Amino acid sequence: MVTIKDVARDAGVSVGTVSNVLNGGRVSEARRKLVEASIEKLGYQVNTLAKGMRMQKTDYVVVILPNLINPYFALLLDALESELSAVGKQVLLCLSGDDAEREVAFMDMAKQNKVDGIIGVTYSKVEEERIENMAFVSIDRHYKSHIPCVAGDNWQGGWLAAENLHKRGSTNLLCFMTMSSVDSEVRKRRVGFTEYCMEHDLSCNSVEMSEKQIVSVYESYGSRKLIHNMLRAYISPSLGEHSIDGIFTSSDHLATIVREELEEMGKRVPEDIQIIGYDGLQFLNQGKPIVSSIAQPVHEIAKQAVKSLTDMIENGKAEDVTNIPVTFHEGPTTKPLETISE
Amino acid sequence: MVTIKDVARDAGVSVGTVSNVLNGGRVSEARRKLVEASIEKLGYQVNTLAKGMRMQKTDYVVVILPNLINPYFALLLDALESELSAVGKQVLLCLSGDDAEREVAFMDMAKQNKVDGIIGVTYSKVEEERIENMAFVSIDRHYKSHIPCVAGDNWQGGWLAAENLHKRGSTNLLCFMTMSSVDSEVRKRRVGFTEYCMEHDLSCNSVEMSEKQIVSVYESYGSRKLIHNMLRAYISPSLGEHSIDGIFTSSDHLATIVREELEEMGKRVPEDIQIIGYDGLQFLNQGKPIVSSIAQPVHEIAKQAVKSLTDMIENGKAEDVTNIPVTFHEGPTTKPLETISE
DNA sequence: CTGAAAGCGCTAACAG
DNA sequence: CTGTTAGCGCTTTCAG
C-alpha cells in the first residue's frame, strides 16, 4: 500500500507538505505540482481510517430504519443515500426490525465508529446520554428531548384525507390508525382529520390499534380478525345512515388490508366505501398508486433531514421541520371527483 | 472519551492486559474480573477506528446496488443486512444508479476504507486491479474474471416459466427480455425457456431489448412505444394460430408494462394471453403477487453471498453458486391449473 | 512556506 | 501470565 510517506519521498518533500496539498494548506505552486505528480504516479489514496482516527471523525452517517420490506422505508433510504452522497457522506445502514435493543446497539456502534451523525426512524425512546455529542435527526418521530424531527405535515395529511373523502361523496367517516408509543407526530393526522369533520358537520369516528398487533398482520390470523371485527362494528345495515362510508388509514399497508376485509364482507370499494391510506406508495414504486393515499414527500423529507443533520453538526442545533407539504394521490379506492355530480 | 489507557489505569493493570481481555488473550481470572469491572464502570467502548487502523481492516462490507426503487433490490438489501449483521459486519451502502462511474468510485472508496469486502449487483465490467486484495462477490452478474457469482437458477427459471405457461394452456410462447452487456447469467433464462419449448414442440419466439431503452420506460414515451410495436408484431389476428398467447418477461416490472399494453390493445390477461414475470415481487412486498412470476430466492441468495464472501476473505477463493432453486408463484396473470380441463 | 516530531487508540511482539 | 513498547497513516503544532 502506498502511504503519504511514499509520496513525500518520491516528491522529495516532507509528509507535512503532502498533507498540506491534500488538505488545501499553503504550499508553493512548484512543490504542489511535484506532489500532485507523485500522487498520480503512485496512485496514492488517503487512508480514511488513519485520517478518521486523527480527526476523531469520519464521513459516515448511520441511517436507522425498521426494515426495507415496507417500500416507504426503501424509498426513503434511496433518497437519503442520494442526498448524503451529494454532501460527501457515506451511509452505514442499520435495520432495527422494530427492535429497541438493536436500535440501542446501533447507536452505541455509531459512537464507537465516530460517525458524523445519525438519521433514523426509530421506535425506542432515545435516551439523551446514548447520543451525547452526536448529531441525531429523527424522521417522523417526535421526542421530547432536543432531537430535531423532520416530517411531512401530518395535520394537513389528516385534513386532506377527510376533505377528499367528503368531496368524493362520503359523509360518515372513520379514522383508523395504528399507533406506537412515540408517535406523537403521527397523532396530528387524526387531529387534522377530526377538525375537518367538525368544520363540515361530518360524522367522525376514530380507532387506534396498538402497532404491535398490526405489525404482523399478514402472518397473524388474530390481528386480522381484530380488524375484521372492528370494521363489522362500524359497518352494518343495522346502523342505517350511521354506517361508515369513508375510511382514512394510517398507512397504505393498512388500507390494503381494510380493502380486502371490506371486499370479503361483500362491500364494494370505492362504490360503497372509499378508503384513503397514507404514504403514497405506488405499484412497483413508480407506476400507479396502490390505493388512494396521502403521499409523503420522500425526497423533501430526505433533503431536509440531511440539512438538519448538517445544522446539528455545524451549530449543535436544528429546528424541527414538521410541515413539509403532503399531497393527495388519487388511486383505485376513491371515486373520481367528476362522478359526484351524478 | 474513555480509552484503553483509562481502563488500564483504573484497573491497575497494563494496556496489554486490557487488550488481552478484550480480544480473548490469556489473562488470569483475577485480573480479568478487575478489568471487566473497570470497563463496566467507565463505560468503555473500543474505538473501532484505532482498531481498524492497527489491523488494516474493518468490519464493513460495501453493498453496491443500482437503486432501491426496484423492490427486488430493496428486499435483497434487507436480507443482506440481516445476514451480514449476523456475522458481525456492517453495511456500507452504495447506490450506483446504474452509473458505471459511480460504481468505480465506490470500489475505490471501499479500498480506502479497508472494508472486508464488497457484495454487489453491478453493471460495469469490474476491472481486476480495482479490487486487488479485496473480497468481491457478485450477485446475478457473471464476469469472466475470478469474481464468484451468486444467483438463482436462471436456466430452471426459464424452464419453469415455459412449463407453467404450457400447462396453463398457452402454446405460442414469447420470451421477452431486456439485456445489458454483462448479463451472461441472465441469458440462461432464455436457454431454459427455449429448451422446454423444443422438448414439447411449442412455438417459441424470443426478443431482446437493450436495457438502456427499458430503464426509463415509465417516463419515456419512446421506449414504451417500442414495446407496443414489438407486441403488435407478435400478436395479431392476421397471424392466425401463430399469434402469441403466452409471454415470459425478464422482470415483473416489464411484465406489468406488457400487461398494460396488452389491455390497451383490447386483449384480456390472462384469458387471451398469459404473462409470467421474474423476481416474485408481491403487493407491498408481503401480500399477493403483483403478477405471476418466477420468484427469486432472495434470502438464500443473500445467505450464499455472505458465505461466499466469507470464503473469499478466509481462503481467497469461492465457488460460483448459480443454481439456487427458484419457484413459480401463481398470480393474476396466469390461469389457474384447474381450469385447463374445461 | 517547509520539515520535524508528537501523538490519535489500539494490537502484537517481546522481554521478563 | 504481564508490562513495555513500537508503530499503523495521518494531521497539526512548532520551529526554522
Automatic annotation (TrEMBL), chains A, B:
CDD domains reported in the protein's UniProt record: HTH_LacI, PBP1_Qymf-like
N-terminal signal peptide: none
PANTHER family: LACI-RELATED TRANSCRIPTIONAL REPRESSOR (PTHR30146), RIBOSE OPERON REPRESSOR (PTHR30146:SF95)
Protein's UniProt name: LacI family DNA-binding transcriptional regulator
Domain of life from the UniProt record: Bacteria
A Pfam family reported for this protein in Swiss-Prot or TrEMBL: Peripla_BP_3
Record's keyword annotation contains Magnesium: no
Organism expressing this protein natively: Blautia faecicola
Record keywords, A-Z: DNA-binding, Repressor, Transcription, Transcription regulation
Span of domain HTH lacI-type: 2-55
